[in-house]
Amino acid sequence: MRNQGHSWQETRDRIDGEIAAGRLVPDTRLPPEHELCVHYGTRRHSLRKALAALVAEGKLRVEHGRGTFVERAPLLNYVIGSRTRFRENLMSQGLTASGETLEEMTIPASDRVASALGIETGAPVHARSWRGFANDLPISIGWAYHEVDRFPDLPERRRDLTSITRVYQSYGIADYRRLRTTVFTRLARENEAAMLMLRVGQSVLVVQKVDADLDGRPIGFSEAVWAGERVQFTFETDQPHVMTTHGENDV
To answer: InterPro entries this protein is in (predicted)?
Structure first.
């Protein structure tokens, strides 16, 4: 009886196992079909069915004219809701969150910053740039802006309290919510690619957000650039529970 080779299910499971074990790393292009048939001991129609199943599962991707590649899995599913917190997002997925301040200054508010914070153009604002990490891998860089008149010594309190949530609480703001979020994509600029360990020209996700106190008054505006291949965003429209604030470090 002629050997029919491994079934498509067995072939699928073997390829899936090699992806899970890290022997087939993201962005690896698979060899030609005849080589795969020999390697996995299967017939061509079984191989094609196995590959199609893995494409449907999001484990592989087909780039027409180039071949079949191991898909990149996002490192982080970042949930954006009315009470979004950086550290909690990462901790809930078993990731270690950290951040570093790159620069701090006081500047006149641009039209865009003033509009977001509901203040006059040219009014003084604290501006802080940062870089955020997940498991020591850079995932975001950005700038945050706060009104000087409302938060006169915010940089000093930020260094002492480490968390923007605790800083707000020190000013009598017991809690705050995400008022508005804008997300769009563009290509990484040279300095952004270097800081996020990306290739120049790779896509990044730009997230602009306005936080407000419970009376709806804006208290902070930020714009962050995220490494597009390392994060996906999930928007929640209803978060009935109150997220805890201990140990947060909202970069």
So the answer is: Bact_HTH_transcr_reg, Chorismate_lyase_/UTRA_dom_sf, CP_lyase_PhnF, Tscrpt_reg_HTH_GntR, UTRA, WH-like_DNA-bd_sf, WH_DNA-bd_sf
DSSP letters, 59-82, are SEEEETTTEEEEPPPPSEEEEEST
Among candidates 107, 108, 140, 105, which has minimal Cα distance to 121? Answer: 108
DSSP state of 173: -
How far from the centroid of its chain's Cα atoms is residue 128's Cα? 19
Residue 96 makes CB contacts below 8 A (sequence gap 6+) with: 90, 133, 134, 135, 136
List average pLDDT for each run of 10 residues in the chain, which is 251 residues long: 73 89 86 95 94 83 89 72 68 76 96 97 97 84 97 94 90 92 92 84 90 95 89 70 36 54
Return the closest-CA partner of residue 150 out of 131, 177, 125. 125
Closest CA to 117 of 235, 21, 223, 3: 223
